[in-house]
Specification:
The protein is α/β, with parallel strands linked by helices and 454 residues long. The chain is built from 16 helices and 27 strands. Helix 6 runs parallel beside helix 7, helix 8 packs across helix 9 and helix 9 runs parallel beside helix 10. The protein is globular, with a radius of gyration of 23 Å.
């Protein structure tokens, strides 16, 4: 039987495909921009027939799932997510979404050893002449979920970019149970965040600490975007990319000639990533581009793999940091915002890399819902806040007022360093709190950081 004959035999409608799902099943919805849309709508139409169907996804980007919309009391579907998008965050606030704690690098192992998967549904590219469907923008733990599943259903979307591997970036038709040709919905794009003045001040300090031949990982947000734009306009050369998330800023760095991958020790000349989200321009750039390599997350985010490249520069955001150096990047008190993601993976990997640097970036202040100015550098984390990067793991911390390295510093030294890059309005108060916490000595002074004035 030819691949196309097998394709026709397995081709069904979305409504027909979801008939395989039973009450009590665990169902995978795909990840990031590769989550199913038409299959979601079809499953929602079966609401009255099903109970206690548990759904897993990662960072919903394609609008609120239909199964959530039709079941506000969670009698039929329970929606769970490994890492929150803005959509997931709002659903969580409404008690319609549950978070699954994880370290990103460990997700494939969770699936292969612990997670139950009855049906795995995912969006893919059209089949190629060899019988393979490419996972497009989303490698991550996709293959591990497929291996665990009893039934695999692919939703074919002609708009999904075909991203070369790497490894484990596609599935052969022989491993697929049902094929659904989608409505070819537009692949979700990620709006480019506005770059603020604070973002630019932080980014300038980081770029000053990047050397030729460095290997870059950028997180999400305005500040990493600002770093990418500054690099694109800099004199830096022969940079490499080894990241979890491929973003527009990396494309800009490549197109301006700053990224060659020539000095990488592994995956030389390749921009390595495990998922991508950004603009349509980014997706067009990635499509069939031999300069990129899609890998599973237990490769991209392994600290031991990351560290094989020299001069790794990891750049990530935070919500809050306390005077001990504990970093919260995923919640505001008990309100869940995003997730652990791969921050810890790359902080550890950069530290292990020869000449590596891990930067945690944070604006010194924010305004609360009443408009009151608050410090993001606090004596102790807000009750309920989750520690993302431990105090023992944190390396460089950067605000618009300066940069400090916490490695090797005693608690009183950390307090001194962090207060020196806090907003001036809050420094005296933070000193008093440090004294109360017994992490301030009579020899302390606010001269432990390179304080930048603009």
């Amino acid at each position: 039987m030819s691949y196309w004959e097998e394709y026709k035999r397995k081709l069904v409608s979305a409504d027909e495909a979801v008939k395989v799902i039973k009450s009590g099943d665990w169902v995978e919805y795909g990840q990031f921009a590769g989550q199913v849309v038409d299959l979601d709508a079809a499953l929602a139409r079966r609401k009255k027939e099903l109970y206690d169907v548990k759904i897993r996804a990662v960072t919903r980007a394609a609008g609120v799932p239909k199964v959530v919309q039709v079941d506000p009391y969670r009698e039929h579907f329970i929606y769970n997510n490994w890492h929150f998008s803005a959509i997931d965050r709002k659903l969580h606030d409404q008690e319609l979404c549950y978070y699954i704690p994880m370290l990103f690098r460990e997700m494939p192992t969770y699936y292969r050893k612990y997670a139950h998967v009855d049906v795995c549904m995912l969006a893919v590219t059209p089949m190629d002449e060899h019988g393979f469907f490419n996972f497009g923008l989303n490698n991550s733990s996709t293959m591990a979920a497929i291996e665990r599943a009893k039934v695999v259903i692919v939703e074919v979307n002609k708009n999904m970019p075909r991203c070369p591997g790497g490894n484990q970036e596609c599935i052969h038709i022989s491993r697929v149970d049902y094929i659904v040709e989608s409505s070819n919905w537009p692949v979700p794009e990620l709006a480019q965040p506005k770059i603020t003045e604070v973002d630019e001040k932080i980014a300038m300090q980081i770029v000053e600490n990047i050397e030729d031949g460095s290997c870059i990982q950028l997180g999400i947000g305005g500040m990493p975007n600002a770093v990418g734009k500054l690099i694109a306009g800099s004199d830096l050369k022969d940079l490499g990319i080894h990241t979890e998330m491929m973003v527009d800023a990396m494309m800009d760095m490549y197109l301006t000639g700053k990224v060659t991958g020539r000095r990488k020790n592994i995956d030389k000349y390749k921009m390595v990533f495990t998922f991508a989200m950004g603009s349509k321009k980014l997706y067009e750039f990635l499509h069939n581009n031999p300069a990129v390599a899609s890998y599973p997350v237990d490769y991209t985010n392994s600290p031991q793999v990351i560290a094989q490249n020299d001069k790794v520069v990891s750049i990530n955001n935070a919500v809050e940091i306390d005077l001990y150096g504990q970093v919260c990047s995923e919640s505001a008190g008990i309100r869940h915002i995003s997730g652990t993601g791969g921050q810890v993976d790359f902080v550890e990997g950069a530290f292990l890399s020869r000449g590596g640097k891990a930067f945690i970036c944070i604006s010194s202040t924010y305004r609360d819902k009443n408009g009151q100015l608050r410090s993001r550098i606090v004596p102790t984390l807000t009750p309920g806040s989750i520690v993302t990067t431990s105090r023992a793991t944190a390396m460089y911390v950067v605000t618009e007022y300066g940069m400090v390295n916490l490695k090797g510093k005693a608690t009183w030294e950390r307090a001194e360093a962090l207060i020196s890059i806090a907003h001036p309005m809050f420094r005296d108060e933070l000193v008093k709190e440090a004294e109360r916490l017994k992490i301030w000595t009579r020899t302390n002074k606010l001269a432990g950081a390179k304080v930048v004035s603009y």
